[in-house]
C-alpha cells in the first residue's frame, strides 16, 4: 500500500446515512490530487500543472455533492476548504442541525445512529433508510419504526413557542433517548 505522504486535509461529515471521512492528498511538486471518501479513492489526477482549483465528487448514500477548493495563500502555502451541497462545511452543518435530529444509542450491543430528516420525516439508522408508519395523535404525530426487535417511535409535539417549533423525541422500548450533538 502506497503511503499517503501528500495528505493535506481530513474532514468528517455527518450525513443521514452516517459520518463520512474525506481525505485529500495534494502533491505540490507533482500537482497530484487524490480524494478519498471513507478510505476509497474517488478521484486521482497526476501531473496537474495548475496547483489551485476545485475537485468535485459525491458523498454517502444520497450522493450529496461535495467540492474541495484549493487556494494559494502565499508562496507555496495552500488552503483547502470543503463545500457540501454548495455551502461551506460549517454552514452546511449549522443548517443540518436545524433540519435533522440525531440520536445515538446502544441496542443489543450495537451502537445505533438514528437520524430524522424533519423536512421529509425520513428515518435512517446506521446508513439505511427505515420503513416507517406515521400517525396523528392528540398532541402531535408519532412516527413508528423498528430496529431489530425494538419498537421505536419519534414523537413530534409543538413546543408552543414559534422560535422553537416542533420538539422531536425518540422513544425506544418505552424509554426516552437523549438527542446527540454532532
Automatic annotation (TrEMBL):
<dbReference type="GO" id="GO:1902042">
    <property type="term" value="P:negative regulation of extrinsic apoptotic signaling pathway via death domain receptors"/>
</dbReference>
<dbReference type="InterPro" id="IPR038513">
    <property type="entry name" value="FAIM1_dom_sf"/>
</dbReference>
<comment type="function">
    <text>Plays a role as an inducible effector molecule that mediates Fas resistance produced by surface Ig engagement in B cells.</text>
</comment>
<dbReference type="Pfam" id="PF06905">
    <property type="entry name" value="FAIM1"/>
</dbReference>
<protein>
    <recommendedName>
        <fullName>Fas apoptotic inhibitory molecule 1</fullName>
    </recommendedName>
</protein>
<dbReference type="GO" id="GO:0006915">
    <property type="term" value="P:apoptotic process"/>
</dbReference>
<keyword id="KW-0053">Apoptosis</keyword>
<keyword id="KW-0963">Cytoplasm</keyword>
<dbReference type="InterPro" id="IPR010695">
    <property type="entry name" value="FAIM1"/>
</dbReference>
<comment type="similarity">
    <text>Belongs to the FAIM1 family.</text>
</comment>
<dbReference type="GO" id="GO:0005737">
    <property type="term" value="C:cytoplasm"/>
</dbReference>
